Structure formats: structure tokens, C-alpha cells
Synaptophysin-like protein 1 isoform X2
Amino acid sequence: MSSFQLNINPLKEPLGFIKVLEWIASIFAFATCGGFKGKTEIQVTCPKLNENKTITAAFGYPFRLNEASFQAHPDVNVCNVNWKSYVLIGDYSSSAQFYVTFAVFVFLYCIAALLLYVGYTSLYRDNRKLPMIIFGFLNMILWGGNAWFVYKETSLHSPSNTSTSHSQGGIPPPSGI
């Protein structure tokens, strides 16, 4: 096995240059999703009480929206309704966590590949089996990820529940419709 020898020439080739771009893209992927914070607001007008209030539900990574309850400031009761008992609908944490985890793995893979390309160029180019081993390992990860996705997104994992009701914490439909 040869020792580490710094050679930045592979970064000028498509193989190394694309790995640098993938590395940067993976940083943006897990940073933007992992650090995301948002909110949704509802403007409520109470004709009997002659008041307008804004009710806010804040959410962020990992996007468990069913845990984001509405908050009315400074009161909890607006139009004689306690808004803390209402939450957003949906739990998207599985997809978000998979996305961030995959981005972290891509980040680590790109660092390892760049170290191999830049530091051990001669080992990589002289050994015919190493690129095939790396390609086989990545192919295995790809197939495993596809199988996991099929399992999680079909009825094999759990029966789909497309309708949500008021008892699950969603906002009830307006009466009289």
C-alpha cells in the first residue's frame, strides 16, 4: 500500500471536480433542511366580538406538523375557541430525516472519495479492483435505499390514511357547507 501523497490534479478532472460539487451540494442539502424553521398564520375575525387576531403555528425540522399547535398571542382563546387544542396535519419526519441522513452519508462519501483521489491517486489508478469494489458498494446502497423507499411508501409498511378528522387534531370544516 502506498503512502499519502497530495496531488490536486484529479480535482481538475471530471471525476474529482464532480465529487467537489457533490460535496458542496450535500452540505447545502442537510443544512437547509436540518435548519429549516417556518410558520403558518391564520387571520381570524370575530364579528360578535369585533376583533381581528392572528393565530400562528410554528414548525421546523423534522416536520412533525401534528405536534405544531396554533398559538394566539396574547390570548389563548380567540372567538371563544381554545386554539392550543388544534394542530397542523401531517407527520413528515420520516422523509425529512431520510433526506438529511442521506445528505450526511453523501457528504462523508465525498470526503472519503476526495481523500482517495487526491491522496492516493496512484493506488486508485493502479488497482483495477478498487473502483469496482467502490462501485459495487454504492450500487448496494442504491438498491437498499430503493427497497426501503418502496417499503415505506406503500401499503407494505402501513395502510394509507388519506382522510383526517377533527379527532386527530385537524381544524374542523366550516359548518353549514
In short: Residues 9-33+93-153 form one domain. The first strand starts at residue 37 and ends at 46. The radius of gyration is 25 Å. The chain has two domains: 9-33+93-153, 37-91.
